[in-house]
């Protein structure tokens, strides 16, 4: 493991001690478990998801989808229309959505919180190409993207072994104790927002922790814990993982979290069309959770910074404007991006 990254603390010893789990979460902002989830179930899910990914043309034709051998010529990411087309095939899978409700995870979330919980309807799969470092998920706090309440927990699970070079998740222990949303700025990568932990060294030690994940390993952390993805530096392996979120029943939930993940460009009716059972369809409507508006100010600030940087010729900002203008032309961001680019206000 690189010198700048330390090993996670393993919490399997406290798996049946809710008080100790809550204490560790309060102190460190994360819990890491070896094989909390059944590897056999994840192997089955990997085959189902990777087969859908192969149908989308992102894996080398004729290879075993379980090997996840990427066709690098098809590199794309969230925000690209070509990514949405492939992602939708994964997002329709009933097994993918059902994995967010597996009792080994929901029971653990309830132990940590000490009260009934509900999974977010919006499940997320991360499909990450190799040699695509500039688009790696940047350093951030989850609250800016999911909102609702600070008590939300994120559960990150690789769907397959995920050594450091494949690009697992890393966290800064204790960073959640700032107890507030820090300033985020424009960045490439999923979410398009980044925070600079070194600017807060007087509040927590900006030291990263991660591990060589094995299938079944599970990382759970708070909405304010600073984290990032490590770059996928492999030659040809696609990284596949699950992002599931859980919050206490009765706490506010952002209205956007009741919708499918945006890059899928799907509605629930389209997702449910091929499902064989009905028990998880619109499950959140049976829970009493106040629904609150989604605050766009974080994204708006990031986009305003994009415009400012584009004026100076910043290549990352220009890339983001061109992609937004091409892939989301009818949105307010898309119209603004087209105007800036067409007027020549931004170089290139």
Written overview of the protein:
By secondary structure, the protein is an alpha+beta fold. The protein contains 10 helices and 14 strands. It has helices at 18-28, 39-55, 81-91, 94-99, 103-113, 143-146, 268-272, 297-311, 315-327, 332-343, and strands at residues 5-7, 30-33, 117-119, 124-128, 153-158, 169-171, 185-186, 193-194, 208-210, 218-222, 227-229, 239-248, 253-254, 291-292. Strands 2, 3, 4, 5, 10 and 12 form a 6-stranded antiparallel beta sheet that branches. Strand 13 (253-254), helix 7 and strand 14 form a beta-alpha-beta unit. Helix 2 (39-55) packs across helix 3 (81-91), helix 8 (297-311) crosses helix 9 (315-327) and helix 9 (315-327) packs across helix 10 (332-343). The chain is globular, with a radius of gyration of 20 Å. The model has no long low-confidence stretch (mean pLDDT 96).
Structural class: alpha+beta
Question: How confident is the prediction overall: mean pLDDT?
Answer: 96
Query: Largest beta sheet, briefly?
Result: 6 strands, antiparallel
Strand content: 15-25%
- The rough form would be described as globular
Classify the helix fraction into a percent range.
Answer: 25-40%
Order of helices and strands: EHEHHHHEEHEEEEEEEEEHEHHH
Please mark out the parts with pLDDT under 50 across 5 or more consecutive residues, or reply none: none
Euclidean distance between termini CA atoms: 40 Å
Question: What is the rounded Rg?
Answer: 20 Å
- According to DSSP, the number of beta strands is 14
DSSP helical segment count: 10
């Amino acid at each position: 493991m690189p010198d700048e990254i330390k090993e996670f603390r393993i919490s399997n010893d406290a798996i049946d001690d809710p008080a100790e789990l809550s204490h560790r979460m309060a102190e460190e902002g994360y819990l890491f478990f070896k094989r909390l989830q059944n590897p056999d179930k994840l192997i089955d899910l990997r085959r189902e998801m990777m087969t859908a990914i192969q149908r989308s043309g992102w894996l080398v034709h004729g290879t075993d989808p379980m090997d996840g051998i990427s066709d690098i010529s098809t590199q794309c990411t969230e925000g690209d229309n070509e990514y949405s087309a492939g992602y939708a095939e994964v997002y329709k899978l009933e097994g993918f959505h059902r994995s967010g409700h597996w009792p080994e995870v929901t029971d653990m979330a309830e132990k940590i919180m000490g009260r009934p919980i509900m999974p977010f309807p919006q499940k997320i799969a991360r499909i990450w190409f190799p040699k695509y470092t500039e688009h790696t998920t940047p350093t951030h706090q989850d609250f800016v993207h999911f909102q609702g309440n600070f008590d939300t927990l994120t559960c990150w699970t690789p769907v397959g072994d995920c050594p450091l070079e494949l690009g697992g998740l890393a966290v800064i222990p204790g960073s959640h104790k700032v107890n507030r949303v820090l300033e985020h700025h424009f960045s490439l990568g999923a979410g398009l927002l980044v925070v600079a932990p070194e600017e807060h060294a007087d509040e927590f030690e900006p030291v990263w922790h991660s591990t060589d994940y094995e299938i079944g390993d599970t990382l759970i952390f708070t909405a304010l814990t600073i984290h990032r993805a490590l770059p996928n530096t492999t030659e040809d392996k696609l990284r596949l993982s699950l992002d599931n979120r859980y919050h206490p029943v009765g706490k506010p939930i952002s209205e956007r979290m009741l919708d499918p993940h945006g890059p899928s460009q799907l509605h629930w009716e389209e997702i449910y069309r091929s499902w064989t059972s009905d028990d998880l369809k619109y499950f959140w409507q049976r829970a009493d959770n106040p629904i609150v508006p989604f605050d766009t100010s974080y994204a708006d600030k990031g986009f305003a910074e994009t415009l400012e940087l584009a004026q100076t010729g910043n290549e990352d900002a220009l890339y983001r404007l061109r992609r937004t203008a091409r892939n989301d032309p009818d949105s307010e961001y898309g119209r603004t991006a087209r105007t800036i680019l067409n007027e020549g206000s931004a170089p290139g």
